[in-house]
Amino acid sequence: MKTFVLGGGCFWCLDAVYQKTRGVSSVVSGYTGGHVRNPDYYEVCSGTTGHAEVVAVTFDETVVPEEVILDMFFALHDPTTLNRQGYDVGTQYRSSMFYTTTEEKVLFEEAIERAQALWSDPIVTEVSRLPEFHEAEEVHQNYYAKFPYQGYCQVIINPKLAKARKYYSAWLTA
Fold it and tell me: Homologous superfamily of 2-171 in CATH?
């Protein structure tokens, strides 16, 4: 099993897709990359803690290759916008990848190179060593499954799920 910590805007979006990905055993929404110990959602959303909203995706690389997890990441958000994903604006929504080993860092850099071929603007995804990971509050875990009819889910997450189904259907469970 392997775990990647990835930030691509609001963690609810990545969580929704990776929850439906074959070989993924766990998706934990959380915060990392900031300077406040044990931040909460409201502190992170204030933009003053330095944290990014992220998901820790644990998967079996014999079922779903690392490259698929990473390529999906770049397909599900715009890695060319600094500190913004759609209407979500602030450093907490930055495109980011947090590694724990040199091998992960290399994988992340290779994924950025692959993704750059798909984007006309430069990719601004931050690649950093993983500092402390703070698990988000329970309400944010598997958010889409809990609140599929909530406005944000309908307007923002549903199109991302549709895109994932279009391009990664072989890797999705439903």
Answer: Peptide methionine sulphoxide reductase MsrA (3.30.1060.10)
10 classed as catalytic? yes
Residue type, 148: P
**pLDDT for 11-61, tens place per residue?**
999 999 999 999 999 999 999 999 999 999 999 999 999 999 999 999 999
7 phi, psi to nearest 5 deg:
-125, 125
Instruction: Give me the helices (H) in the chain, please.
Output: 11-18, 41-45, 66-76, 102-116, 143-146, 151-152, 158-168
CA distances from 71 to 90, 109, 112, 117 (A): 24, 12, 9, 12
Burial class from Cβ neighbours inside 10 Å (0-12, 13-18, 19+) for residue 90 reads: middle
User: Mind listing the pLDDT tens digit for each residue in 63-113?
Assistant: 999 999 999 999 999 999 999 988 889 999 999 999 999 999 999 999 999
What is the pTM assigned to this prediction?
A: 0.95
Whether residue 55 contacts residue 30, with contact meaning beta carbons closer than 8 Å, is answered with: yes
77 three-state secondary structure: coil
Domain positions in the chain are 2-171
